[in-house]
User: Which sequence fits this backbone?
């Protein structure tokens, strides 16, 4: 029987400095054992331990007990608290909220900004809501970026969404779902190995629909076009996966980009907020290892530098094929790990395969 060592925190607060609300919250958390970290040791700093008399017990739970515990947690509904599950897809991390009882997000964009703060909140690249289906789909997915903006779609997020639904519905093994998103119908399928394969739909190449003010130079698309950013000329291709992406393999005249040498915090915002992108843009910087192996770093619209971007990896393979640099089946290496991407010729759909993992369960007062 699989045993998972899980740390749980039992707290007895001896510190009078804690407000009664925080003491009530912490003791509520402890009684309900509702803050546990599967597979992770919880390290707390000494001052916090001293002030709060933390006693950390390492308890061994079978995976069945863990599953029961997570279900007990997921059934929590008391008001005034947001119960969430933290997931990540290759380090692109999200706060997932069970919103199946309403089409109204349980969290406002302003609250999402606070929840995503990595010092004063839970920490994350976004908040994702699992909502009732629309027009006959199983579910609807909405997402707020960590800056509070609402994008049309999120590739790593929809893999996490699929695993979250399977947990909520107590499903095991292979399962697929139809999900309504701002990018249209998306179909993730949980594979036997736990990875998630997603039909991400068709790429959008029309400059007008992306949207970008860059002039179309290949049919209605923008392929290997010049873009001046902060006085430097770059060569870019623009692809939408429902959300806009600007892909570059390097500056004009020097297409051998070494992506680890880039200062993303400097160059990223200059692409994101460039006036040729009226809805801003995600930007992917690419290094070509072979015609089936690419390396990518990304500056995301509304989230900044992230460890992975699923829609971005899909857009990158489309751009690489359009520029004649790659085949339609590629491994894309991101800082958080690899994604397998296929731009299938038969149906013009892009397919993405990758992991999605639970990090922890939690409750926060709203
Ligand atoms: N920041 C993106 C949304 C999240 C996309 C990314 N995290 C992914 O995995 O696709 C945007 O505003 O379009």
Assistant:
């Amino acid at each position: 029987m699989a045993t998972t060592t899980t740390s749980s925190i039992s707290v007895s607060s001896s510190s009078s400095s804690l407000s009664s609300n925080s003491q009530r919250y912490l003791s509520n958390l402890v009684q309900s054992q509702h803050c546990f970290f599967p597979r992770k040791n919880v390290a707390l700093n000494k001052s916090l331990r001293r002030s709060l008399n933390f006693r950390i017990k390492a308890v061994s739970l079978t995976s069945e007990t863990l599953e029961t515990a997570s279900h007990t947690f997921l059934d929590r509904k008391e008001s005034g608290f947001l119960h969430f599950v933290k997931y990540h897809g290759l380090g692109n991390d999200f706060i997932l909220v069970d919103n199946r009882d309403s089409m109204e997000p349980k969290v406002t964009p302003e609250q999402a900004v606070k929840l995503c703060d990595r010092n004063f909140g839970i920490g994350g690249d976004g908040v994702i809501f699992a909502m009732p289906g629309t027009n006959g789909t199983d579910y609807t997915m909405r997402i707020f970026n960590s800056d509070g903006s609402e994008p049309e779609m999120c590739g790593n997020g929809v893999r996490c969404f699929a695993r979250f639904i399977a947990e909520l519905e107590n499903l095991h093994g292979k399962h697929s779902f139809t999900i309504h998103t701002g990018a249209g119908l998306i179909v993730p399928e949980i594979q036997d190995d736990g990875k998630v394969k997603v039909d991400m739909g068709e790429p959008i190449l029309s400059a007008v629909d992306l949207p970008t003010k860059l002039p179309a130079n290949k049919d209605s698309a923008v392929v290997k076009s010049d873009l001046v950013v902060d006085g430097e000329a770059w060569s870019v291709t623009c692809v939408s996966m429902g959300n806009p992406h600007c892909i570059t393999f390097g500056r004009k005249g020097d297409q051998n980009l070494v992506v680890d040498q880039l200062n993303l915090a400097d160059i990223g915002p200059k692409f994101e907020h460039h006036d040729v992108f009226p809805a801003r843009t995600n930007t992917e910087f690419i290094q070509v290892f072979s015609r089936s192996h690419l390396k990518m770093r990304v500056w995301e619209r509304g989230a900044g530098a992230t460890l992975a971007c699923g829609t971005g990896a899909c857009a990158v393979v489309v751009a690489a094929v359009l520029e004649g640099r790659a085949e339609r089946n590629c491994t894309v290496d991101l800082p958080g790990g690899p994604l397998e991407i296929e731009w299938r010729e038969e149906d013009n759909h892009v397919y993405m395969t990758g992991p999605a993992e639970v990090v922890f369960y939690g409750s926060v007062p709203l």
Q: What stands out?
A: Residues 92, 145, 151, 154-157, 243, 282, 300-303, 306, 309-312 surround 2,6-diaminopimelic acid (CB under 6 Å). The mean pLDDT is 87. The domain at 225-348 is CATH 3.10.310.10 (Diaminopimelate Epimerase; Chain A, domain 1). The radius of gyration is 22 Å.
